[in-house]
Write a structure and sequence with these properties.
This protein has 450 residues and is α/β, with parallel strands linked by helices. The chain is 34% helix and 18% strand.
Length: 450
């Protein structure tokens, strides 16, 4: 049965191409949503404003095919219409005022429902309160589902396999084990354990070219003084240190070591091995709680508070490296001041700490790019970052899907989990979900109990 979808403004700015993703159904954009997007593109200078302009471009192109207030046929068989007149505010509750855009969109949905009996009319919005109000008014409402994944079924990147002890012995002896079980994804890791419970085990990686399991290539080695403390961390280091894997996604709760391992591997590959020209570390500028407002100083000084978690990890890593290796004479600054060390490598052009705002429009070849807190990015924003990657560049996305500060994202709709599912079958991509905290006993208990 053909359906009618009423789109809220937040859906349009979340995914500008959403108007083409409702198959052969009718898509209605209330005129007030156009007004809101016009205001957004004037007031803001970010991804939301750019998406608002993209919607305008799409609608302007559709105008060439016909009158969008009457309805324009789409290539997928659907029809797009910008609605002006279907507003029955008198049918809304007296508690809902006319001067609020959300209520005017609800009025459009209400009018379409009453005038199209027997046809499903669905309001699509990423605003939970809007969905609640729609339900109270008897209007069917749903989130934008196109880019959602099932967080409970999110690909973990690992597989636990109980086998006979002789199978593990064979794997160690031959360095290879043909895989005949359920299909595995490229670069998926397998934890083999003795079914008899003797404690014998092995860590393996699925090689799609060979069609079987191979030992970890990186093994027990450290990355800039940092070693994997559990099997997931060792699996992650395997991906982070493998230049053939161009995209790595690391998901886990606070304290599991996602960012620390990524930065340590980036320093090792860039500063020590020279496999990449520069280590670029970035994260979205989204506050937790109240914004701290205007910050004085130049760009680097303004970014310092936002990048504090990165500085904390760098300080820990450089301190660990200093203890575990002797510094070469004249090669690295002999200073315990983290700022001096960072400035030294930045001056050499080997390290850059940047805001995501300045990534757009750049081409980034031969770089090791780490995007921290990627769960606060939309799928479109992650696409923008990945399409910046030039020849020889590796991108690492880290984050916790359950710690989201973006108002219209959740654990199932953010860019990080979306990329995990979309890339799990690609040979140049790898993923690990961390399950054990390593920051401290207190941090682990807090993550579990609170």
């Amino acid at each position: 049965m053909k359906k009618i979808f009423i789109l809220d403004t937040n859906v349009l700015v979340h995914d500008p191409r959403c108007i083409f993703k409702f198959q052969d159904n009718d898509v209605v954009i209330p005129l007030v949503a156009i007004e809101e997007m016009d205001s957004l593109k004037r007031r803001r200078n970010d991804e939301v404003a750019r998406n608002a302009r993209r919607v305008a471009h799409y609608l302007d192109e559709l105008r060439q095919k016909g009158k969008i207030y009457e309805g324009v046929k789409l290539d997928n068989g659907g029809c797009l219409k910008v609605e002006l007149n279907h507003q029955k505010m008198e049918k809304l509750s007296g508690a809902l005022s006319w001067d609020k855009s959300d209520n005017r969109i609800l009025a459009v949905a209400l009018a379409y429902r009453d005038e199209n009996p027997g046809t499903p009319v669905i309001l699509v919005t990423k605003d939970m309160y809007m969905r609640i109000k729609a339900d109270v008014m008897g209007i069917e409402a749903q989130d934008y589902l196109t880019d959602k994944v099932d967080i409970n079924e999110l690909y973990s990147g690992t597989f636990d396999w109980q086998v006979e002890a002789s199978v593990i012995d064979r794997f160690y002896a031959e360095g290879f084990l043909p895989w005949e079980g359920e299909p595995l994804n490229p670069n998926q890791f397998v934890f083999m354990s003795d079914i008899a419970g003797t404690g014998k085990s092995a860590l393996a990686r699925y090689d799609v070219e060979k069609g079987g399991l191979v030992p970890l290539r990186y093994g027990e080695r450290d990355a800039w003084g940092i070693r994997g403390r559990n099997k997931e961390q060792r699996f992650a280091l395997e991906l982070l240190m493998d230049d053939s894997v161009k995209l790595v996604t690391l998901v886990g709760q606070a304290g599991t070591g996602k960012t620390l391992l990524a930065i340590a591997a980036g320093l090792q590959k860039t500063l020590e091995e020279g496999s990449y020209k520069k280590l670029l570390i970035t994260r979205p500028v989204i506050p937790m709680g109240n914004d701290i407002g205007y910050l004085p100083g130049d760009k680097e000084e303004k970014m310092r508070p936002w990048m504090s978690p990165i500085y904390d990890n760098l300080e820990y890593i450089f301190g660990t490296a200093k203890e575990s290796r002797k510094e070469k004479e004249g090669d690295k600054p002999k200073s315990s001041n983290i700022e001096a060390i960072i400035q030294y490598f930045k001056a050499k052009g080997q390290l850059e700490l940047e805001a995501l705002t300045y990534i757009r429009g750049r081409t980034l070849p031969h770089q090791y790019i780490i995007v921290d807190e990627a769960q606060n990015l939309t799928p479109h924003e992650v696409k923008t970052i990945l399409t910046r990657a030039g020849e020889g560049t590796k991108v690492v996305l880290t984050g916790d899907p359950y710690q989201i500060d973006h108002p219209y994202l959740d654990s199932s709709s953010n860019g990080l989990t979306y990329v995990v599912e979309k890339f799990k079958g690609e040979k140049i991509a790898g993923h690990i979900t961390f399950v054990k905290g390593e920051r401290s006993e207190l941090a682990q208990l807090a993550a579990e109990l609170i």
